[in-house]
Specification:
Blueprint (H helix, E strand, L loop, with lengths): L21 H4 L4 H10 L4 H4 L4 H18 L2
Length: 71
């Protein structure tokens, strides 16, 4: 199963259980990384049923990235 890093424009392949590549994961503030992990449910990448909370966190991360890239 091919899965790309969730950072916009990144083409790095990562295991499906990971949000993103190492470079972009550590560009996120620790509090954001912790929030992603708090709402990640092992196996959600297999059954394709992430929680509403996880999806909200991921949307918020994309918004944060967009704001950060404009700086």
């Amino acid at each position: 199963m091919k899965h790309l890093c969730h950072w916009p424009g990144c083409k790095a392949e990562v295991p499906p259980r990971l949000w993103g590549c190492k470079k972009h994961w550590y560009q996120l503030p620790k509090v954001i990384r912790e929030n992603i992990m708090l709402h990640y449910r092992p196996g959600q990448e297999i059954d394709k049923k992430p929680s509403k909370e996880y999806l909200e966190v991921v949307r918020n991360v994309r918004q944060w990235i967009g704001k950060d890239e404009k700086v």
